[in-house]
Amino acid sequence: MELISGYLNDPALRQSFNRLAIETFSLDFEPWYQGGMLPHGRYIPHSLVQDGEVIANCSANLFDLIVEGREVPAVQLGTVMTAKEHRGRGLMSGLMERVLAHYKDRELIYLFANDQALGFYPKFGFRRIPQTTYSLDVSALKRQDASPHQLNTDDPQDRVLLLRLCERRVPVSQTLGVHRDCWPLRAACSLVPRRLWRLEERIIVMERTDDTLYIDDILSEQPFALDELLPSLVPPGCRRLCLGFCPDQSALPFSREPLWEDDNALFVRGDALPKEFCFPETSHT
């Protein structure tokens, strides 16, 4: 058994990694790799390999967060998995210790865990903390005629805009945003094309459910004033708006509530986060 890292350009190891990811999470990374969405040095699998097969993995996603206007080097761990026949042997504990030692100089290390792993990560110095939800009664908005149209990723102009914004977008929030986040942003957009809407030269990741509009992200090359943009996004009949990111210096009366999720629990090592925050929905891996 050996530890091998950053091997995605090795077809045999990548296929083994993909088989384990499909078995564990029903998630196939191959289309993202073939589409150039897994940049070298930004998504790094760290895997225990036995007889040419990946039997355990913990991947590191290298992020440059923007926290209260300051750039913070961070790592989001993900794709934490062990093959069924090798579970219960302590492999992941040993792998986690080695991965954390490798990234000890990063200011923040964090991950999102499912309900079966809530007791695992505190053993390694992680603490569980809530995010904040931001919601708004849309009666507080002076509505404008909504003009966004659904993005068509088969249309060359829409596709070029999407690719450009994934590469060049400004962080959606200076309170807590992600800088240079083409991965996993492109992957997130590929999973939810029906939630992509175009408003002039911006793309809004949003979805309406009943009388509530959920806005997960706003992709723009230029800084924007959220309070000025939101009235153009709210459709008729909508009564409530929820954000999947932190609003910056908004004069709007957002309600704020702590969010504790058992199936998407946030664990962190480090003290770089603001008192109140929300990781952009499109940055989760």
- Would you give the CATH topology of the largest domain? Aminopeptidase
Q: List SSEs in N-to-C order.
A: EHHEEEHEEEEHEHEEEHEEE
How many strand units?
15
- How many alpha or pi helices? 6
Structure report:
- The structure is a single chain.
- This protein is α+β, with helices and mostly antiparallel strands.
- It is 21% helix and 33% strand.
- It has helices at 11-25, 30-34, 91-102, 156-168, 182-191, 226-229; strands spanning 2-5, 43-50, 53-67, 70-82, 108-113, 127-128, 131-137, 149-150, 176-179, 196-199, 202-209, 212-219, 240-243, 255-259, 265-269.
- The strands form 2 sheets. Strands 1, 2, 3, 4, 5, 6, 9 and 15 form an 8-stranded mixed beta sheet that branches. Strands 8-10-11-12-13-7-14 form a 7-stranded mixed beta sheet, with helices on one face.
- Strand 4, helix 3 and strand 5 form a beta-alpha-beta unit.
- Helix 4 (156-168) packs antiparallel against helix 5.
- The chain starts with a strand and ends in a 16-residue tail after the last strand.
